[in-house]
Structures are given as C-alpha cells and as structure tokens.
C-alpha cells in the first residue's frame, strides 16, 4: 500500500531537480551566494544555537560542497526565521 503522505529529503529534491533539468538539456541549477545562504539559514541557525561560529559553519559547507563560502558570506546573507519561506517548518 503506498504511503498516503510521502515525504522527500532535500537530497532527493536536488536529485530530481538535476534529473529534470538534464531531461530538458539544461545545466544544473546554480544559486548566488546570497540565495544559497538564505536556503541553508535554518541549519545555520541550529548550528549557531549548538555553539558553532560562522567560520566553522562555512568550513562544513566548503568541505561538503567544494564551493567557496566564507564566514562573512554567512553573516551578511543569513536569513532570520521571519524572512524564510518555510519558517517554522523544520523537516526533522
């Protein structure tokens, strides 16, 4: 019996986005730093609450993505909860 209310991980959403764009012969979607930091602001907030500073958070992002992100980028572009589209709707 199929799950009546399925859920998807962020990784699955990214994989689907990549596959759908490839089917359209489009390049992978890319985000400017400001938009990227806004997208991960939920996790930034949680890591800050757990005692991590912006440099440690930027290091995690650099190691996991290979992308260039600085503590200053995080500080400048962090989106507070009231500015997030999915504010208060934590996935897990």
Describe this structure as you would to a colleague.
The chain is mainly α and 92 residues long. It has a domain at 31-83. Helix content is 53%, strand content 0%. The chain is built from five helices and no strands. Helix 2 (33-39) crosses helix 5. It is globular and about 45 Å long. The chain starts with 9 loop residues before the first helix and ends in a 15-residue tail after the last helix. Residues 87-92 have low confidence and may be disordered.
Attribute tags:
92 residues; mainly alpha; globular; disordered C terminus
Major sheet attributes: none
Note poorly predicted spans: 87-92
Helical region count?
Answer: 5
* Average pLDDT metric: 91
**C-alpha-based Rg, rounded:** 15 Å
Structural class: mainly alpha
**Number of strand segments:** 0
The proportion of residues in beta strands is under 5%
Give the helix level as a range of percent: 40-55%
Shape: globular
